[in-house]
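User: My collaborator sent over this chain with a note saying "see what the structure looks like." That's all I know about it. Can you take a look?
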Amino acid sequence: MMRIISGKFKNRKLDSPKTMDVRPTSGRLREALFNITQHYIEGADFLDLFAGSGAVGFEALSRGAGSVCFVDSSRSSVRSIEKNISMLGVDDDAYVVDCDVLEFLPTHRGAYDIIYVDPPYQKGYSEKILAMIDGSQLLKPDGVLFIEDSKDFDPVSVPLKQLVLVNSRRLGRSMLHQYKRAAV
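Assistant: Without extra context I'll predict from the sequence alone. Here is the result:
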C-alpha cells in the first residue's frame, strides 16, 4: 500500500493496481522529485505519464499542484487512480485518461508546468517520449520534464532540439533525468 509522503494528504493510503505490471515509484525518488519542484509546484499543471498507481500525481496535488492529468492504459491502474481521486475528494483537480501514452501525446493539446514520465524500463519508451515532447508544445516555456528510467538509459543519446538535459540523479536502481526548454 502506497502512502502520500507530505502535504495536505500526508500519510493517506492510496489504492494500488492489483497487477505485477506496475513498478511503483519509490518514496525516496518521489521525495527527491518534490525537493526539486518545491519552489514551483504551487498551482502547477502536472502531467503524470505511465501513472500506474498515480502516487506521483497525488503527491503533486498534496503539495499544491493546481491540477493533475494521469495517463495510463492499464485498466487496473485507471480503476485505482479513479478510486483515489474519489477517496481524496479531488474530482475538480484531477482526471485520468485511459489511453496508451504513445497515442495520447501526439493528439493532446494541453500544456503543463511539470511532466513526469515513468515508463516500463528498457523498452525504448523514454527515447520515443523525449522525441515526442521535444517536438510538441506540451511543456510550457518555463516547465520541467522528468523521466524516471533504469540506469541503463542514456539520456544524451536522444537528439533534442527544444529540450536540454539539466540534471541526472541516481536513486537506487533508478535514474531521474530533468529537462527544460532550451533558451531561445
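A starting point for your reply to your collaborator: The radius of gyration is 15 Å.
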